[in-house]
Design brief:
Elements (H helix, E strand, L loop, with lengths): L1 E5 L3 H12 L3 E5 L3 H8 L10 H10 L3 E4 L2 H5 L4 E4 L14 H10 L7 E5 L7 H10 L6 E5 L9 H6 L4 E4 L3 H11 L6 E4 L1 H32 L3 H9 L20 H14 L6 H23 L7 E5 L15 H10 L3 E5 L4 H4 L8 E2 L3 H5 L4 E4 L11 H7 L5 E4 L6 H6 L3 E3 L4
Parallel strand pairs: 1-2, 1-4, 2-3, 4-5, 5-6, 7-8, 9-10, 9-12, 10-11, 12-13, 13-14
Helix pairs in contact: 1-3, 5-6, 9-11, 9-12, 11-12
The structure holds uridine-5'-diphosphate-glucuronic acid.
Amino acid sequence: MNIACIGTGFVGVVTAGVLAKLGNKVIGLDIDAKKVESLRSGVVPFYEPGLQELLVETQKIGNLTFTTDYATGIRDADIVMIMVGTPSAPDGQADLKYVFAASESLAPYLKEDTIVIVKSTVPPGTNAKVRDIIKSKTNVNFEMASVPEFLKEGTAVEDTLHPDRAVIGVESDRARDILTELHKPLTTNVIVMRPESAQMCKYAANNYLATRITFINQIADLCEKNGADVQEVIRGIGQDKRIGTHYWYPGLGYGGSCFPKDVKEIAAYAHAVGEPESMFIKIDDLNEKRIPKLMVKYDMLVGGFAGKTVAILGLSFKKNTNDTRVAPSLQVIPWLLEKGAKIVATDPKAIEDIKPLLPASVTYVGTPAEAISGAHVTMLLVEWDDYQDLDLAELSQAMQEPRFFFDTRNQYNPVEVIASGLKYKGIGR
Ligand code: UGA
């Protein structure tokens, strides 16, 4: 099939690469000429395992090309996928201006019977608006569909190649058959529904997961009040098949480019459609307040951060990505600097990305050993593989009193950390 992927951001590039690998002829279309030039030469502007290789391989066999020209990108497409950004509008709802601009630009070049898919995360009802925009610029027949994306940064290529399911929102049997065929090589678990339901699936999935994280963080906070260990609680409740042991990592709250935004969006959407008592307003509020609340506690534990050197391990929003959007480091480090701490920070991939976003007084080093050397406090913010197996005896020796180890991802056994001469504080234990 000929497929046009509009928007070569994270989702656009991964989707284009995977569809090209399956044997489709894919054109990635973006108005950013610099980005297109870089992708053409096989350079991905962010770190994502396996993506660079995928783009080089699929371009080499001629299945993937990139263009800035709408006529070139759209005129032969059987399927057009809109995957442009949807930043938050001032009222918290998704700002759809790029989706609408792309719809206007693509319309004049559509061929007969093309399927136009909105893959960007948008509220139900958006397809009707996109349809109207396109209709005002063309006389050809086309149809709209919604196919949400469930990939995670850090495992995006794998997630797209082997999804748990494909959710396909369509209005006709023809679109159902074509899109089922397209997704068949990826999964046999194709779930067909109306477009509005498909769009709600995306919001429901992300908001459920964000709620789950907030839930376990709340339980963790209660564990700290009574001597329980949240990791033991997770083991205990996870055996209930309705609950499960997966995706239960308490910490500093959820970050990244999706959850914080999607929770705010669904809360604002609920308000806009006459449901002001949305629980998502509370979830958002709890997540926003989480880091400041924990930092106050940490400050008390170390006897005040003023004059102390803090080693920060992990600057991205999670491991295996250099994405720093809503990363814990962006809240934690300014808070510590404000209190008079000195910061020595490290990350395997995100140092160059975070530098412009943090005060110039932060010192960056290449390894955890360099960061920890002479520090009063070590704070593990992201569980990169490199930080999962630190030599605790060396850590203790390299640090100076009070030798506090804040393990905000519960990666270490508290008993072993304390035995090595460090003071330990995890989450909910
Ligand atoms: C998330 C969803 O997991 C994807 O399914 C979805 O497609 C994507 O958003 C999107 O909407 O595009 P992602 O933001 O890449 O993917 O990252 P996750 O691995 O889900 O983590 C999100 C945040 O939650 C991170 O800050 C992570 O540290 C935190 N988290 C995750 C926890 O604090 N605890 C957990 O148990 C899991």
